[in-house]
Amino acid sequence: MNLLLDTHSLIWTLADDPGLSPAAREAIEDGNNIVFVSSVSVWEISIKRALGKLSAPDTLLEEIKRLRLTRLDITHEHADRAGRLPPIHADPFDRMLIAQAQLEQLTLVTRDSEIQKYDARCLVS
Q1: pTM, whole model, 2 decimals?
Q2: Would you say 9 and 109 are in contact if contact means Cβ atoms under 8 Å apart?
Q3: Are 3 and 36 spatial neighbours (Cβ–Cβ below 8 Å)?
Q4: 96: three-class secondary structure by DSSP
Q5: Pairing of strands 2-5, 34-38
Q6: Region 9-19: what's the mean pLDDT?
Q7: pLDDT tens per residue, range 38-91
């Protein structure tokens, strides 16, 4: 199974947070699964850290590499799909994650119930 971590799931994974569901933790740690991190999550974390809304390590990129998480860049196709999604969720970061999960056929690891209303495979984090 190929996974895409939403921003909160990424933060919980990096922090080894016990709040991450056992199913999500098992899937993330399973060496047979490829775990992707979107550039949009790095962007969201950086913005929220700069605004003082989130405490995150300055070594975010190094931590992502250390855990051997796979980078997923944003493409024009992702941007177009995100803009065409039904208006269930207003958060542009989450809309991009949904579009990426759909187009790349990834399972989105999220606890966000609004994201789960879209036509995308989800694993509750």
Answers
A1: 0.96
A2: yes
A3: yes
A4: helix
A5: parallel
A6: 94
A7: 999 999 999 999 999 998 888 999 999 999 999 999 999 999 999 999 999 999
pLDDT of residue 57: 81
User: In the CATH scheme, what is the code of domain 2-124?
Assistant: 3.40.50.1010
Side-chain-side CA neighbours of 92 within 13 Å: the count stands at 8
pLDDT at residue 10, as a whole number? 97
Q: Mark residue 54 as left, alpha or beta (left: phi above 0; alpha: psi -120 to 50; beta: remaining).
A: beta
Going from N- to C-terminal start, the domains of the chain cover 2-124
Contact 18, 12 (CB under 8 A): no
Q: Which two tokens stand for residue 89?
A: 């969720």
* Tokens 């493409």 belong to residue: 75
- Residue 107, both tokens: 């399972």
- What's the CA gap between 115 and 33, in Å, rounded? 22
pLDDT of residue 58: 87
Among candidates 97, 111, 107, which has minimal Cα distance to 19?
111
Full strand arrangement of the beta sheet holding 2-5: 70-72, 34-38, 2-5, 107-110, 122-124
